[in-house]
Amino acid sequence: MTQLWPAPVAAGPVRATVPVPGSKSITNRALVLAALADGRSTLRAPLRSRDTELMAAALRSLGTEVRDGTDGEWLVEPAALRGPATVDCGLAGTVMRFVPPVAALADGPVSFDGDPHARTRPLDTVLDALRSLGTEITGDSLPFELRGTGTLKGGRVTIDASASSQFVSGLLLSAARSEQGVTVVHEGPPVPSLPHIDMTVAMLRAAGVDVDDAQPNTWHVSPGPIRALDTEIEPDLSNATPFLAAAAATAGAVTVPGWPAATTQAGDGIRDILTTMGAEVALSPAGLTVTGPSRLEPVDIDLHDVGELTPTVAALAALATGPSRLHGIAHLRGHETDRLAALEREITGLGGDVEQTADGLLIRPRPLHGGTWHTYADHRMATAGAILGLRVHGVEVEDVATTGKTIPDFPGMWASMLEPVA
Ligand SMILES: O=C(O)C1=C[C@@H](OP(=O)(O)O)[C@@H](O)[C@H](O)C1
Ligand SMILES: C=C(OP(=O)(O)O)C(=O)O
C-alpha cells in the first residue's frame, strides 16, 4: 500500500507568495538544444525534477556533458553523439518523444525503456517518422532499440500528431542537425497543445535555426548550426496553477513571483480561466496575483491547447457553483494516465458527479466527502487532490511523491503556502 498524504484543509482564505521552480517544457527543450549546439551552454534556474534529470541523464548517456554550475545552473558541453547508450524515459513524454530524434543522429545502438505506464503512451508516430527518414528502429512503443549511423539525411515526413504535439516538437528540435533539414506535415484531427509547438519554434529561432511555420500544419526546419544557449528558464506556469487554484478555491490571494509578461508557456492560459471562474487576476512586477471569489463560477471551456491544465481546472470545477463542461481534451487519455477516466473516478469517489464525454468531462458539483484520492503515478492528479483537500476534510492523496516528476518538493511548498502569514 503506497503511503497516503493527508491533504491539509485550509483554515481560512489562503494568503501566500509562492515561488515556483523552472518550466519543465523549457528546461527539457533547452537541454536538447544545448546537446546539439555548437558550443557550451548555460541554463540558469533550470527545473531539477525527475523529468529533467531523466533528460539530462539521457543526453549524458549519448555523450553530452551536463554538469552543475555553482549557482544551480546546468552547464552543457556538446560532444559527438554515440551509442551504445541506454535511455530511461521514466514517464516523461518529453524524454520519450524528444530523445529518439537525437539518438537518430548518434553513431551506435540506443535502447529506450521507461515506467510501466510509459509503455502504453503513444509513441509509434515519432518512431515511424524516424524510420521514414532512414533510421533503423525495432519496436513501436517502449521498450525499443534505435540504431543510428551518426547522420540523418532528413526530408519530408507526414504524420498524424493528433495524439500529442510532442511528436512534432521532437522531430523539429533535432531537425537542423540533419543533412537536408526536415519538413513535418500533420494530417489528421487537429494537433493538441499548439502553444507547445510554438514554444519549440521560438526556442529554435532564438538559437539561430531557420524555421518556416507559415503554413498551418506544416513546419520546415532548415539544416544549420544550433547556437549555444545562455538562458534563464522561466518559472513553470502549469505547475503554478495548483497554488493559484488555492486562492481561487478559498477566496484567498496567492502571488507567484517572476510570472513572465510574455511567454510561450501554455500555462499562461490559467489567467483567462480563473478570470472566467470569477477570480481577480493581476499581473504586476511582483508577479501574478490571483484573488479568489466568494463563489466560484462554473466554466464551459475548450482546453485543447492547454490540456495539461485540466486536472487543476477539474478540481476547481468540482467546487464551483454550477455544472462545468471541459472539452477538446480526448488526447488526455494518452497522458501520464488516462486523465479523463482518473478524474471521473476520483472526483466521483469523493461524492462528486462527473461524467466522461467523447472529448472531455461534465462536472456537476455536489457536496464532497473525504476518502483516498488515487493518483495513478500522475503528478497532476496528486496536485488536483491537494486542491480539493483544501475544502474537503479527510482527502488522502496516494503517492504524493509522484509530484516529483515536475516539482521537487510539492508537499513542502504546499505546507509553506498554508503557513499563517506573520
Ligand atoms: O512539449 C511539451 O513540453 C508538452 C506538450 C504537451 O503534450 P501533449 O501535446 O501530448 O498534450 C503537454 O501536455 C505536456 O505536458 C508538455
Ligand atoms: C502531459 C504531461 O507531461 P508529459 O511531458 O509527460 O507529456 C504533463 O506534465 O501534464
TrEMBL record:
Domain Enolpyruvate transferase: 12-412
Binding residues annotated for 3-phosphoshikimate, in chain numbering: K24, S25, R29, S164, S165, Q166, S193, E308, H335
Pathway: Metabolic intermediate biosynthesis; chorismate biosynthesis; chorismate from D-erythrose 4-phosphate and phosphoenolpyruvate: step 6/7
TM regions (residue ranges): none
Domain of life of the source: Bacteria
InterPro entries registered for this protein in UniProt: Enolpyruvate_Tfrase_dom, Enolpyruvate_Tfrase_sf, EPSP_synthase, EPSP_synthase_CS, RNA3'P_cycl/enolpyr_Trfase_a/b
Enzyme class, UniProt record, top EC level: transferase
Reactions catalysed: 3-phosphoshikimate + phosphoenolpyruvate = 5-O-(1-carboxyvinyl)-3-phosphoshikimate + phosphate
UniProt subcellular location: Cytoplasm
Protein residues bound to phosphoenolpyruvate: K24, G93, R121, Q166, R339, R380, K405
EC number(s) on file: 2.5.1.19
GO MF term set: 3-phosphoshikimate 1-carboxyvinyltransferase activity
Annotated function: Catalyzes the transfer of the enolpyruvyl moiety of phosphoenolpyruvate (PEP) to the 5-hydroxyl of shikimate-3-phosphate (S3P) to produce enolpyruvyl shikimate-3-phosphate and inorganic phosphate.
Assembly and oligomerization: Monomer.
Protein name (Swiss-Prot/TrEMBL): 3-phosphoshikimate 1-carboxyvinyltransferase
